[in-house]
Write a structure and sequence with these properties.
This protein has about 350 residues and is α/β, with parallel strands linked by helices. The chain has two domains: about 5-90, Winged helix-like DNA-binding domain superfamily/Winged helix DNA-binding domain (Arc Repressor Mutant, subunit A), CATH 1.10.10; about 95-340, Rossmann fold (3-Layer(aba) Sandwich). The protein has helices at about 1-10, 15-30, 35-45, 50-60, 75-90, 95-105, 125-140, 150-160, 185-200, 215-220, 225-235, 245-250, 255-265, 310-320, 330-340; strands spanning about 65, 70-75, 110-115, 140-145, 170-175, 200, 235-240, 245, 270, 275, 280-285, 300-305, 325-330. It has a seven-stranded parallel sheet with strand order 3-13-12-7-4-5-6, with helices on both faces. The protein has a four-stranded antiparallel sheet with strand order 8-9-10-11, sandwiched between helices. The chain has a two-stranded antiparallel sheet with strand order 1-2. Helix 9 (about 185-200) links the parallel strand 5 and strand 6. Helix 2 (about 15-30) packs across helix 5 and helix 6 (about 95-105) packs across helix 15 (about 330-340). The longest helix has 20 residues, at about 15-30. Keywords: DNA-binding, Transcription, Transcription regulation. Belongs to the SorC transcriptional regulatory family. It holds the Pfam family CggR_N. GO terms for molecular function: carbohydrate binding; DNA binding.
């Protein structure tokens, strides 16, 4: 494939340019549908005249439809877009970037979606879809999936409505207690959404993410909590996000002493209640109930998801502690920044 693409670039470069442009238009419509021509032209930095010509062609090919509310993809358009993803990664060089990121981070696999979720928040939905496809690929007949909270995992839950898990037995369990005040982004809510969208079951962990040592000892004696913790330990797949240190500390309502500790330790990344500096050193850990960082290597599959240029330092810092078998799902913005830091 690579050799063919190189030859095509030399012989008919306009063909590949047209292909990339139309793929970008289709993908942008999928991200924002229903969308009007003016809004789409502005998003793509393209004149309305050029965009009009392109979308008329795509309509004639039955790849998009026009409605009063705006343009949207047809079933054929969605199928074509999915089929083109790997080809477009070769054309744009993203496959090569994925290999470079794996080498820099020392992990098994990296999946990169085009774009930067810091610049376009809808790219986070693409990360969610990519995670859902990875999960679909890794599933056995019976599965326990441990899931953390966060907006990226919430995107994964939404995307699971579009994957094929027919005949699979799925049990989603929260890997952590609740963090922050936004209920929809907490692990319990996300597990419930994943179970509903994938036709599986879920369990609830009725504990806050951060607790005192005394309360932790008491809660660990509760049979219902012990049952969920046992399920977490038996999980086949772990799916989790990676946070920016100071933002996660704010979500946890960390006190002045803890914030000073993070600042003094130059913390940049967070996962599972552990805060890391740029070298990957743990500079602070909160007392939590649920999956612990040192337990990760025991799991068969670990999928980490985070995107956006601003998350690059957090990803790099965490990956110095991550299992080598980790699959990272990220976006182009984070990936390019990760490589810059090398």
């Amino acid at each position: 494939m690579q050799n063919l693409l190189k030859l095509q670039k030399q012989l008919v470069p306009d063909l590949l340019n047209d292909m990339e442009r139309r793929y970008t238009i289709l993908r942008s419509i999928r991200l924002t549908e229903p969308v009007g021509r003016r809004s789409l032209a502005s998003m793509l930095d393209m004149t309305e005249r050029v965009l009009r010509s392109e979308v008329e062609l795509l309509k004639s090919l039955h790849l998009i439809n026009f409605q009063k509310a705006g343009m949207h993809l047809t079933t054929n358009g969605r199928q074509l877009l999915t089929g083109l993803e790997d080809v477009m990664k070769d054309i744009s060089g993203i496959h090569e970037i994925e290999k470079q990121v794996c080498s820099v981070l020392g992990i098994a696999e990296t999946i990169i979606v085009p774009g930067d979720s810091d610049k376009l928040s809808l790219i986070k939905n693409e990360i969610g879809k990519a995670c859902a496809r990875q999960l679909e690929r890794l599933l056995d007949e019976k599965n326990i999936i441990a899931v953390t909270g966060g907006s990226t995992m919430a995107s994964v839950a939404e995307a699971l409505a579009d994957v094929d898990v027919m005949g699979k037995e799925l049990l989603f369990v929260p890997a952590r207690g609740g963090v922050g005040v936004k209920v929809s982004d907490q692990a319990n809510s996300i597990c419930a959404a994943m179970a509903e969208n994938a036709g599986g079951n879920h369990r609830i962990l009725y504990v806050p993410d951060e607790v005192s040592d005394v309360l932790r000892s008491t809660l660990l004696q509760e049979p219902s909590i012990q049952e969920v913790l046992s399920l977490i330990e038996s999980a086949d797949i772990v799916m989790h996000g990676i946070g920016e240190a100071m933002k996660m500390a704010e979500r946890r309502n960390t006190g002045e002493e803890g914030m000073n500790k993070l600042k003094k330790g130059h913390a940049v990344g967070e996962a599972f209640g552990y805060y890391f500096n740029c070298e990957g050193k743990v500079v602070h850990k909160v007392s939590t109930i649920g999956l612990q960082l040192e337990e990760l290597p025991q799991f068969k599959h670990v999928i980490a998801a985070a995107g956006g240029n601003s998350k690059a330092k957090a990803i790099r810092s965490y990956m110095k502690n991550a299992p080598k078998s980790t699959i990272l799902v990220t976006d182009e913005g984070a990936a390019m920044e990760i490589l810059k830091g090398e």
